[in-house]
Amino acid sequence: MPLISLEAGLVVRRGSCTLEFVRLLDGNKVQFEDPRTRHVQTLTLSRFYSALQTGQLAAVLGEEVHGADLTRGKAAPVVLTCPLLPCHS
């Protein structure tokens, strides 16, 4: 499992749903928001990490592109993990 940080920019997938990290609550809960529907999901940290371990959630990983010449038509490389699981549990 890749190392992830609970900070702005973290995106995870639950089946076909994309969830963006919103905030850490009370030090033991995390909130994610579906950018399409704005539905907010709150999980305990233990449930969040458990869902990552079991594959119910998958981190969407991207590579940083330093010095890429996008003016010459070179697209930024992106790696996505998108398992086909139900959107809501």
Write up this protein:
A hairpin with a 2-residue loop joins strand 1 and strand 2. The chain has a domain of 54 residues. The radius of gyration is 15 Å and the shape is globular. The chain has a five-stranded antiparallel sheet, covered by helices on one side. With 89 residues, the chain is of the alpha+beta class.
Brief rundown of the structure:
With 89 residues, this protein is an alpha+beta fold.
- Count of individual helical segments: 1
Termini gap: 22 Å
User: Biggest sheet: strands side by side, in what order?
Assistant: 4-3-2-1-5
* SSE arrangement, N to C: EEEEHE
Residue windows where pLDDT falls under 50 for at least 5 positions: 63-72, 75-85
Instruction: Report the strand count.
Output: 5
Q: What is the overall pLDDT average?
A: 76
Shape: globular
**Which percent bin holds the helix content?**
10-25%
Radius of gyration: 15 Å
Largest sheet: 5 strands, antiparallel
Beta-strand share of residues: 25-35%
Q: Helix/strand/pairing class, anyone?
A: alpha+beta
